[in-house]
Amino acid sequence: MPDGGTERSEGAERTERPESSERLGRSGREGCALVTGASRGIGAAIASALARDGWPIGVNYRSDREGAQSVVAEIEREGGAAIALEADVAQAGAPDQLFGALEDHYGVSVLALVNNAGISADDLTPSLGDEAWSSVLDTNLTAAFRLTRRALKAMMRARSGRIVNISSVVALRANPGQANYAAAKAGLIALTKTTAVEVARRGITINAVAPGWIDTSMTAGVDQELLAAVPARRAGTPQEVAACVRFLTSEEASYVTGAVLTVDGGLAA
Ligand code: NDP
Question: Which residue numbers are catalytic?
Fold first, then answer.
């Protein structure tokens, strides 16, 4: 238990804002941000949005080096700072590798972490293989736990930090063929809430964003007719998700923690 037990009472400190709050947001100088799976899609949009807020960025990718480098180039064109970092987040050594590289490069701690890297391996449950189950759980849930554990060390010392976990609407609303993916994304919400209350007194917020159907390579093969089920009658954009993550990592969101923000055109409503 990082914060010395399950006790949630704040006593006299309850209405005080953390002294270190100026470390967050535009200053960016006292901390950097790591966005996992940022070589394309939602992660790439989040990396750009956070860079515009002044965060020096680590653009993690697993295989798409070119994609990650073009995200870095775009951020630099806009006057921001970014580096591409190769790592498979499903590997146990990834957190030390990524955080070590960022701390060396920027000379500051990671004070914003966005657990965005995710994969799907869909099948109906009777046919769902062990490998499809484990790879999705390892990438989408276990990696987020390990990265969160690593991130909290410095955040607790700094009494400042932002963690955003990219969950999914399927954690809240059934989608046949995604038992592994939905279980991982629902686990991510439970992880979010639990860790959020553990560290709430330390000026650290931890929230989840649950996108619905967002137009990326992950949804490229999905039957467009399914859009009829979305009240907004359209897919969302990576930028619409990134705007919410940007808010949750900002100083303005200092009293939002343990929340799940749906970005789904009304699908889960
Ligand atoms: P994409 O498939 O477009 O991008 C996935 C990103 O994750 C890529 O940058 C990929 O890097 C990276 N990645 C995958 N596995 C790993 C790994 N083991 N280690 C490091 N990086 C990895 O997905 P989206 O942008 O659509 O999805 C982003 C997140 O949003 C995911 O968590 C997804 O589950 C979630 N989401 C997406 C929705 C959608 O409709 N698109 C809806 C709800 C949630 P590389 O290419 O280098 O392998």
Answer: 181
Query: Would the CB of 61 count as within 6 Å of ligand 1?
Result: yes
Q: What tokens does 98 get?
A: 């990524």
Q: Is there an atom of ligand 1 within 6 Å of 165 CB?
A: no
Average pLDDT over residues 49-57: 97
DSSP secondary structure string, 134-198? HHHHIIIIIHHHHHHHHHHHHHHHHT-EEEEEE--GGGTS--TTBHHHHHHHHHHHHHHHHHHHH
What are the tens digits of pLDDT across the range 24-41? 444 445 899 999 999 999
Instruction: Report how far ligand 1's centroid is from the alpha carbon of 15 (Å).
Output: 38
Burial-class residue 253 by CB neighbours within 10 Å (0-12, 13-18, 19+).
buried
Task: Give one DSSP letter per residue of 47-98, joined into a string.
Answer: HHHHHHTT--EEEEESS-HHHHHHHHHHHHHTT--EEEEE--TTSTTHHHHH
Nearest CA, atom 6, ligand 1? 37
CA-to-CA separations, 176 to 122, 139, 140, 232, in angstroms, rounded: 9, 20, 18, 22
168 CB within 6 A, ligand 1: yes
State the distance between the two ends of the chain, measured CA to CA, in whole angstroms. Answer: 34
Domains of the chain: 20-263 (3.40.50.720)
Is this model's pTM higher than 0.70 or not? Answer: yes
- pLDDT of amino acid 223: 84
230 lines ligand 1 (CB under 6 A): no
Closest alpha carbon to 229 in 264, 258, 192 = 264
Mutation test residue for ligand 1: of 35, 48, 61, the one with most atoms within 8 Å of CB: 61
